[in-house]
Write a structure and sequence with these properties.
Elements (H helix, E strand, L loop, with lengths): L5 E6 L29 H9 L8 E6 L3 H7 L8 E4 L5 H15 L4 E6 L1
Parallel strand pairs: 1-2, 1-4, 2-3
């Protein structure tokens, strides 16, 4: 049984510079099919967590320039499940923002943060 107060926050805002030249700023590694299985890293991460939480409890943390790519790779998400950063501020501010947002949405929320 899936807990309705459990959430997953998938970080997908980086540029993936270590995967250059495949990963570029306009299409970083989280949107690439690195493993050659027909799915992006973001898609595979999303699908793994569906065994733990419903899709409605999965949040994607990304830069605002990647919003359309996230929706392309995860069309089952609503726009309010995509938390957009106006600038890249690294992991800690991203997690803090997610925690504050979830506290307002669900005071009993617990969440896991995972890379894409």
């Amino acid at each position: 049984m899936k807990n309705s107060n459990t959430y997953v926050a998938i970080m997908a805002g980086g540029v993936g510079s270590r995967f250059w030249p495949s990963s570029r700023e306009q299409k970083p590694k989280q949107f690439l099919d690195i493993l050659g299985v027909g799915k992006s890293l973001l898609r595979m991460t999303f699908e793994r967590f569906l065994n733990i939480v419903p899709a409605s409890n999965i949040l994607i943390l990304t830069n605002e320039i990647y919003k359309d790519l996230v929706l392309e790779h995860l069309p089952e998400l609503s726009e309010n499940q995509i938390l957009l950063e106006p600038s890249r501020n690294n992991t800690a501010p991203c997690i803090a923002y997610t925690a504050l947002r979830l506290k307002v949405q669900d005071p009993n929320a617990v969440f896991v943060v995972a890379p894409s």
